[in-house]
Amino acid sequence: MLDRLTLSMRASHVLAALLVVAALVLAVVGSAIGDTFYLRLATEALIFAGLALSVDLLLGYSGALSLGQALYFGIGAYTSALVLMKVPSFWLAMGAAAGMTFVCAIIGGLIANRVRGVYFALITFGLAQVVAKVVYNIRDLGASDGMIGIPVIDIGIGPFSVSAGNPVGFFLVVLVIIMALYAATAYLLDTPFGRVLTALKANEKRVPFLGYSVWRARMVCYLAAALIAGLSGALYPMLRGFVSPELMFFMTSGNAVISVILGGVGTLVGALYGSVFLVIIKSVIGSWTDHYLIIIGLLFMAGVLFMPKGLIGFVRPHVERMIAPRHLRETRAPEQDAPLKAEEVKP
């Protein structure tokens, strides 16, 4: 049965496909003209899009605002860097980053999920700040200078091999990984567990009466979001060749939140578009003036005031109208955000 949530998710998939097409066009053009800078910039935008995706999973679907999601992004980045310095293996680095992130997320989740609302945001912020300060003072991790000299590796994909130093090749590898994370997240949200998360955001107090554990659902969502952030962070040292404690600072988390709000909270694909938009704006405006944060702040406020549903929240209803079956177009306008009727919700 095609309900409102499924229709919205299908519209997001269409917009995600358009993003992939645009990325492939960029790769072809970049390869043809021998561009390096913009391909590397686009790769960085995709990596941080993974972080934004994890924020949107928490904020857009369970209603939990994390101000310290960069903690797991940084843990993934440092774990990947440490492995690559010892054993230059892409898959070993990604696996180690996932494992370390998962263990740390269990500890962080047990702490953060004891509270709700603004207290959850403050706890996640505090956890990230504490760990960032610890890393900042550990000499074996490079202290304030971070870790440098991370080797350029070859990524084995079946019978093929792609060098992380190849701008086009690594861009395509990152694109595949980030879109795989998007697809996995979308699949999770389309399961009954995803509907439980939506119910948590709508009215958490009623969920136990349906037979579901609120704490367990929030914990699983927290762990999933942390894994997405950690796997995205694991790609960063492969791109830049270094990691620093700044990856765990509040600015990194704040940029991810801004990306989600600009793209559209709860749209999933909006996190990807918002991150790409933010990285491009920072690069373009940063080349004009050192005070680019002022302009980004003004753009952010304008977006919140005039496009409260974000860029994708504005565009997606039109996509829904194009792909919706006729009976849904006739009975329900896509731009309406009225509560779902009982017959529209999957059992």
Automatic annotation (TrEMBL):
Keywords: Cell membrane, Membrane, Transmembrane, Transmembrane helix. CDD domains: TM_PBP1_LivM_like (cd06581). One of its GO terms (molecular function) is branched-chain amino acid transmembrane transporter activity. The keyword Membrane applies. InterPro entries: ABC_transp_permease, LivM-like. The chain crosses the membrane at residues 58-78, 90-112, 118-136, 168-189, 209-236, 256-280, 292-312. It is a multi-pass membrane protein. Its main location: membrane. The keyword Acetylation does not apply. It is found in: Cell membrane. It comes from the Bacteria. This is Branched-chain amino acid ABC transporter permease.
